[in-house]
Write the structure tokens for this entry.
Amino acid sequence: MTNSERYLDSSLKASKILTKTYSTSFSMGIFCLGKDIRNAIYAIYGFVRVADEIVDTFFDIDQSKKIDDFHKSTIESIQNSYSSNLILHAFQHVVNTYQIDVNLVESFFKSMKADLTEKSYDRESYEEYIYGSAEVVGLMCLYVFLNGNDKKYSELKEYAQKLGSAFQKVNFLRDLHEDYELKGRAYFPELEMNGKFDDSSKKQIEIDIQKDFDEAINGIKRLPSSSCLGVYLAYRYYNKLLKKIKSTPASKLLSSRIRVNNFQKFTLLPSAILFSLFMRKA
């Protein structure tokens, strides 16, 4: 192994550690992917996680400057095929290896920066934020899953966006207490229109999310065998989370964070395996 190979290996391991530290659910899903694509998805998640922490956690720093610096470093790392930042080095390797459209990266940063300036969204800006913060991540992963199959990418692109959108909207509902009550962020247009979050507003949002999930499953069935199980497991987890949210009053969502415990997560695996074996379309 050369020094450059050792460096890349260390970078990918750093992304894997970061992912496992932050997300049990996504770690489970990635573990169920084919071995040859796991590291690439760890690298994408690690990159997204670092950017998210800049705007969502470290409020005592100049967040605007830091996210701008991270943005600039990301683009430079892609252009140079190198970064001294281990997480970025892993990410640029994936972008360059799978020829991921850099416009997806630009859209991602646009949404991340919006978290520092926007407190509420109308329908248009909400959809733009969802696209940049979540849908493009699904598309980056799709590049990896399909590994150069442009025809299949075009066919499945819309489904990947629907799944990313559903995941993000569920996260918004799950984190409503922190985002809305503590940080003053009203992502949902319903909050801007009504000026409040009640069971009626919650129901509207849940219908919208369920529609995204119902469309996304048709794309999951058409994924390669190397990615179908892992993606379906994440789909099942977020559906489980949405089900718990549906049974929770709006008032409680504003005061607490809904979770799916690790035991419940692991019980999703057997049915996910059956799905990937018998229900996936050829």
Observations:
- The domain at 138-282 is CATH 1.10.600.10 (Farnesyl Diphosphate Synthase).
- The CA atoms of residues 97 and 144 lie 9 Å apart.
